[in-house]
Amino acid sequence: MVDTPYRKMLAAKIHRATVTGADVNYEGSLTVPPELLVAAKIHPYESLHVWNVTRGTRLETYAIEGLPNSNDVCANGAAAHLIRPGDHVILAAYAMVPEADAATHKPRLIFVDDNNQLSHVGPEIAGPNLRSDSDDTHLVRSTEMTPDGQPLAEGC
Questions:
Q1: 19 φ, ψ to 5°?
Q2: What residues bear Pyruvic acid (Ser) in this entry?
Q3: DSSP 3-state assignment of 34?
Q4: Catalytic residue among 6, 62, 94, 119, which?
Q5: Domain-by-domain residue ranges, the chain?
Q6: What global pTM score does this model have?
């Protein structure tokens, strides 16, 4: 029997959700509105990587389905020490993809607004380019600067 090689690939991402609550006394997990889970094709209890854009922290937990139409993204249990209301987070789920399919694999990428409402579905834009505020189909160059006045996009 020949083992099929696999690669761990991004399967789904919810980009820049706004955290609405944090409860250290809850047993654990990350509450996500069911509408976002369905849009991203993430299942309840699926493993999630949580990257806190605001604080720079990262953790792994699992998704728990919130109430319909609630827009609540809540850090529960120990995660509440690393994530606070108002933080922006990226939620990512991974899958093992057969090597033969890796080159054509396309993850499900969804982007949300500050109220955790779906704004659009993929594709992802590679840095140093950014989406235009007026039109998701147009790109602009990043104008962020380092403390010494150099463009942040250098070296991307």
A1: -70, 130
A2: 29
A3: helix
A4: 62
A5: 6-124, 125-156
A6: 0.82
Is 31 annotated in a binding site? The answer is no
Q: Name which CATH class applies to 6-124.
A: mainly beta
pLDDT tens-digit profile of 92-133? 999 999 999 999 999 999 999 999 999 999 888 887 777 765
| Three-state DSSP class for residue 143 | coil
pLDDT digits (tens, 9 = 90+) for 52-89: 999 999 999 999 999 999 999 999 999 999 999 999 99
- Are the CB atoms for 144 and 151 separated by under 8 Å? yes
The span from the CA of 112 to the CA of 16, in Å, is: 6
**94 is an active site residue:** no
